[in-house]
Structure formats: C-alpha cells, structure tokens
Amino acid sequence: MHRTHVKVLEDVLDANGTIARANREDFDREGVTVVNLMGSPGAGKTTVLERVVAALPDVRVGVLEGDVRGTLDADRIAFLHVPVTQINTDPSFGGECHLDANMVRSAVPSLPLGEIDLLVIENVGNLVCPAEFHVGEHTRVMVSSVTEGEDKPLKYPLMFRACDLVLVNKIDLLPHLDFDLERFLSNLDAVHPAVPRLLLSARTGEGVEAWRDWLIETTTREAVPA
Amino acid sequence: MHELSIASAIVATVERHAGGSPVTTVRVRVGRLRQVVPDSLEFCFGMVARDSVCEGARLELEVVPAVLRCAGCEHEWELETPPFWCPACAGTEVAAVRGEELEVESIEIEEEEAACIART
Q1: Given CB atoms, is B53 within the 8 Å cutoff of chain A?
Q2: Cβ pair B44, B9 in contact under 8 A
C-alpha cells in the first residue's frame, strides 16, 4: 500500500451552495422573492407569518413549511387560502434539524412559482443549523421572542449575524417578564451592529404593519422581471 | 448541534476526492466564526464515517482565528468575543477577513502501488 497526500481545498458546504444557486435561478426566472424565516422552536414563526399573510392582500404569497414531522404548521397556513407546500425532514426518525438546498430543490416542482410574488420558507425551529445552509433565498428573517432571554444574540451569534431582519416577538408579554429589552438590543448590536429590527406581537397585532411594509418593500426591491 | 450535518458534508466532500481508496487522515480548516465545537465534530465524524471511505480515518482540525476588518478606517483585529464593531473607530461596517473557513484542506489516502497515480 502507498500513502498519498491529496490536496482538496474545497468548501465543505460547496454542494449545498451549488444547489442553492440553482434554486435561486428558478426563483429569479419566475420573479419570486424568497424569504428564509428562521428562529427557535416556539419563537412564533408560524404565527408572525399567519398574521402578515392576512395583511398582504395585494401580494401573492406562497409558503414552504419545513418541519421535522407533521403538517400542523402547513394546515394553519392553508387555512388562510395561500398555496402551502410541506417538507418533512424526518422520513423515519432521523430528521434533519434544518432545511438544506436539496430539500428545497425537491419541493420546487410542486411550488406554484408562476402564481406568486413572494415565497416564505419557514425553516425548522433551531438557532444554529439553519444559519449554515443557504437554500436559494434572497433574504433571511429571524424571529426571536422576548420569552427566550436577552442573552440569545451572544449565545447564537452565527444565526443573529446571518439574518437581514430580526423580529422581536411577544412584546405584549414584556410587562410580565424580567426581560431587559435594552440589554437584548445592545447584545444584538454587539453581534450584528445596526441590523434592522422590528418589535411586534403576533398575538395582539402590534407592529405587524411594519413587518408587512418591510415585506412589501423587499418584494418590490428583489423582484426580477419575469 | 450542526456538527452532525457538517460531519456528513465533510465525508461527502472527501468521497468525491478519494477515488474509492481508504482514507487515513482528513484535514479540515474551521473558522472560529462557524461555531463548530471540535470535540463534537470529531465525535460526529466518527459516526458518519462508518461504511464510507473515511471509516477509521483521523480528523485533524485546524481552528482559524477570527480576523475582522473595518470598512471605515481599515483597522484589522483578531476577535475573541463580541462586539463585532471596530475597536479603533467604533465603526459597524466590519467584514470577516478570516474565521469563516469551513473547508477540507487535504486528505491522506492509501492506494495500491500499481494504482498509484499523480494527483495534484
């Protein structure tokens, strides 16, 4: 036997990146703006999405739901009469904790890209892995709720640095919590200075208008003429 | 917790370069900003390497420090912990010069003498 040294110099996630670019080309060809919505389990990703979809009558929205198991979130979105596609990352019991470009690739044929302006991909609830895997999105939004504690940006800088907008959810609970909003925002600025952030409550609807306006503005800006 | 996915991606990358030969060593460069836990990655690598050309291979990790550069004043510094703003001018437009690496640098493979061909 002979031992051989082989230079590789290849990004570990190159394969994912290649597929993500193919997804992005498909989205651009159809003039669809794609948002990758991320956040921890229970942060309120589905609820902030439900709220804003109901407030976007002039934008044709489609939703791609990523979950380890089940169709609970997809069922909630379908109730709003928007096209929704479900990806389950767990065919048996070995589910991935994030969506990757290939999973989204497999869902592309079933997405009505010609009939929508905006596709929201709701990622699996997780503050680490989704940040590593681009899926072909134009922009990344994360939901962080005030019940999660103000230290989260410092504990999960990769996720907080990977997003273009932070939705600070459940602010209706602030009077009942010890959550220090100022400290949270300064922790956020420490890991991602000046990242746009919106305070909202998906439960009461406070702040949802600004989230809607951000989506309209982003959809208009990113739209590539078909 | 993303170490399992990264370990799988490392094995997939190595498989494309090993040409079916058994791999003895895999050298990976990991930037500090990737939030990879080395012990966890080694553990996961051992699991996902089973039944692949990487089975039994040693994973050597080179951790690359995070170096940031300020777009405003061009100051460069090594970051140990947040904040991600410039210590010289407090500018917030900073970019990582190093520390975001996640690449398979090289591998060692075992080949039959007769099958030994030059690889670059």
Answers
A1: no
A2: no
User: Do residue A193 and residue B94 have CB atoms under 8 angstroms apart?
Assistant: yes
Hey, is the C-beta of B79 within 8 angstroms of any chain A C-beta? no
ipTM value greater than 0.90: no
Cα A95 to Cα A41: distance, rounded to the nearest angstrom: 15
Give pLDDT tens digits for A105-142: 999 999 999 999 999 999 999 998 899 899 999 999 99
Instruction: List the beta strands (DSSP E) in B1-120.
Output: 23-31, 58-64, 66-70, 76-79, 94-98, 102-111
- Which pLDDT tens digit goes with each residue over B35-80? 899 999 999 999 999 999 999 999 999 999 999 999 999 999 999 8
Yes or no, beta carbons of B35 and A157 under 8 Å apart: yes
Distance from CA of A13 to the nearest CA of B (A): 6
Both tokens assigned to A29: 């060809």
Q: Is B112 on the interface with A (CB under 8 A)?
A: yes
- Residues near A73 by beta carbon (within 8 Å), at least 6 away in sequence: A46, A65, A67, A122
Give CA separation, A76 vs A48, A67, A116, A141, A164, in Å: 12, 13, 19, 20, 26
Where would I find the H helices in A114-207?
152-155, 157-162, 181-191
Tokens of residue A193, six digits: 């200075």
Q: Do B104 and A126 touch (CB under 8 A)?
A: no
Chains A and B form CB pairs within 8 A to the count of: 119
CB contact under 8 A, B102 and A11: yes
pTM of this structure? 0.89
Provide the total of helices (H) and of strands (E) in chain A, helices listed first. 8, 8
Which ranges of chain A would DSSP assign to H, the alpha helix?
14-29, 45-54, 72-78, 101-107, 152-155, 157-162, 181-191, 208-222
